[in-house]
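Inputs:
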Amino acid sequence: MSTERIASGDGVVFTDVCKIYPDGTRAVDMLNLDIRRGELVSLIGPSGCGKTTTLKMINRLEEPTSGSIVVGGEDVRSSDAVALRRRIGYVVQEIALFPHLTVAENINVVPELLGWSAAKMRGRADELLEMAGLAPERYRYRLPDQLSGGQKQRIGVLRALAADPQVILMDEPFGALDPISRETLQNELVSLQKNLRKTIVFVTHDMDEAIRISDRIAILRKGRVEQIGTPEEIQTAPGNDFIRNFIGEDRLSQMSPDDSVGMLLEEPWAVAAPSESASAVLERMEENDREFIHVVDPKRGVWLGAALLGRVRRAAVAGKSVVESLSRDRKLYLEDAVLRDVAEMLADRDISIPVLDSGERLLGVITSAGLARLAMNRLRGNRTARAAGEKKEGTR
Amino acid sequence: MSQKSLVDLFITFVGRNWQRILWLTGEHLLISLIAVGITVAVCVPLGIYLTRNERAAPYVIGLANVFQTVPSLALLGFLIFVLGIGNDNAICALFLYAMLPVLQNTYTGIRGVPKSYVQAARGMGMTDFQILMKVQFPLALPVLVAGIRVAMVWTIGTATLASAIGGGGLGRLIFSGLSSIRNEIILAGAIPATLLALAADWLLKRAQEYFNPSARAKRLAKRHGMSAETESNSAA
């Protein structure tokens, strides 16, 4: 989904970053990470994997030992730390709203540091409160102590947004909340992000949270990026056993019959143009031992139909074009097709299924071999996860 | 000497000497305020400095503790060798005596501000000085005022000893009453000194409450005419 976005340089880019503490601990070890502008990337991993250190190096609360970190095209080490931090929003787990300041004053901490006028700050606080669904006239002068946990962290997020930074860092912001407010805030963040398109770096230890909110998830281990990808990629193709274990059995096996078929798409290897004669196509099919072929308009990629060997042969005998032999009843649309449909169609007839987008263009095909491979992956993932679980049981 | 006659004697003495009593009360208060004023001016910055130089803290606070532990009269006696007799000596002794609570409370008050606030403030781009002025100091203020309150009450009490080394204040009456065995004069000095201490305690207790963060927000809310709303904690 993110391929057409502007590439690196505008977001947050880590190049060969190391952070070694005086006691010799390698918190971050040759980390490379390219977070694009407008993208929400979660950093996740077991404790001690360096995710929080990585985050804090972005606004220089921690200084990297070596390597470079570029935020918005500027190397953080060449910019003034205080000015840099005022340009970057920051939300912490402890919420840390200042208890001696009202809600409005808390929201306007950074604008005040930047020297905004009182009128501008007041307007900004009201605007943000309204955006978060908190009536300004009721909440403006409240104290943090007079808010619920969820409301407090909502103000914590507003505080990070106040000076309208492009980059926002969130350090386990919803970790201290009860499950219900946590989910509410996650959903609010997702819808907020849809409109604002900030570059958000989000540290979490909660895989469900990462899957729910992220454009991409970076799994960290021992100060390195173990795997980075969209939530779907991480779930369908975990890079190794560590990641498989980390994601957890239930999430991998959550592969339900109602899942999208996007992950199964393969390149269609047998494609013909509608202008070809049936006999030419037949020759190719027999040469390659194909039972069928997809006919696609070469200009717009629109799928015209599938031609089965028997019907192509008949059309060839009659000296007709390949178009005469097409059947169009066996196909799936990517938006609404689920794994159950695929399994049923393949059980009915074991030949590959074309998958189209809403404009009838051919996106790829699904084969029974692909489905089998996916199932094998799942099974193996489950078994290793279960084996690890049993080992844990045994030591108890 | 019967109870009744003491009261009579006291009333007569006060009736004849009220101007002097008032003047001595004023002097007593002035000595105490100057001493506490100097203590605050020295110990608050010193306490803040110690939060930034943790290694020096035990020594400095230990020293203040020593002054605190030396009996007050003895401390005044020692200082005669340094400053001679008079109010200067008294104020200096009172300052040394009052150091500990102010220093200690400034130090612990500022250190007691949760690290998460400091970290959040730094992460949002406050300089060290801004963190001190906008976050640490306001949050430490109630603790700090509590320290000043203790120092003030102690100082008003101890200042009665100032006259023992040639200083002024209500101690004059108490000591002259003691030497002439006239209880009404002792009372004429002791009662105002007690009232002064109680009044200072009450006043600073109010100040402590005033500087409480939530009190400030309530004032703000009241000023904007929404007290009822703020009182009800409708954390839904």
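Chain A has 16 helices and 17 strands. Flag for discussion at group meeting.
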